[in-house]
Amino acid sequence: TITGNSKKKRLGTGWGNKVSRYYSFECHIPTILLVSQAENLVASFFPNKLLELDHFLKDPILNICDLKEIHSEINLTVPDPILLSNLHDGLEAQSAKKRKMEDGTGEDKVAGTKVFIMPSGMMKSNTKLVDLIEKVKPEIRTLIEKCNTVKMWVQLLIPRIEDGNNFGVSIQEETVAELRTVEGEAASYLDQISGYYITRAKLVSKIAKYPHVEDYRRTVTEIDEKKYISLKVIVSELRNQYVTLHDMILKNIDKIKKPRSSNAEALY
């Protein structure tokens, strides 16, 4: 005879096994999809993308010889100088400013020109560089996403920790580390783009405040040229990273998929 407690225990055990099998099956489905997606990325997407980026590097937009073509006009006119009708008024103003600075109530900075409105309503960005940036950014995001997928695939292939015969596991870990490095470098490219906009905005603000200083205008031109060269380098690096990852994974695909041989597994 089966007592009530033992019957409940058996029912509980059976229910627990069903739940365990259900969740195991549910978790196994996305893993299978991830494996299929990652293998397709390495075998097909990576080589196609590196060819696409190599073609992009030959595009005329990335091969401008005369960098003056990417310059952007800064529509901020230099105001006419203010003429003092009475020299005594100017001396009084300077004396008052000096007293403020000595009292600590004024800032020890040169006062600039007050700008109430831009001549064209808004100081626009360098449109040629903005168009190029909008073409490069999706490529950066794509590399980050694809690296994350392949990295997760390799991590799931890493077997449980055991003593000995870990050469294949070390290859897997090296691959994960390389994917993580590439992912981080690609993310830093996005930081460089936002940093460019911030730096340029500060310089344009300086030009609006100090329109008589030519060096600020030249600095904007210099950072535009620097950013153009940097964008070409970024595209080149994206292509090289696809080449490196594709080559590294294919050369070690056997150890990545099966880090331990069947003979070694039989010994444990």
Automatic annotation (TrEMBL):
Pfam families: PA28_C, PA28_N. It comes from the Eukaryota. Keywords: Acetylation, Proteasome. One of its GO terms (biological process) is regulation of G1/S transition of mitotic cell cycle. InterPro entries: PA28_C (IPR003186), PA28_C_sf (IPR036997), PA28_N_sf (IPR036996), Proteasome_activ_PA28 (IPR009077), Proteasome_activ_PA28_N (IPR003185), Proteasome_activ_sf (IPR036252). Residues 34-81 form the Proteasome activator PA28 N-terminal domain. Residues 123-265 form the Proteasome activator PA28 C-terminal domain. GO terms for cellular component: cytoplasm; nucleoplasm; proteasome activator complex. GO terms for molecular function: endopeptidase activator activity. The keyword Acetylation applies. Belongs to the PA28 family. This is Proteasome activator complex subunit 3.
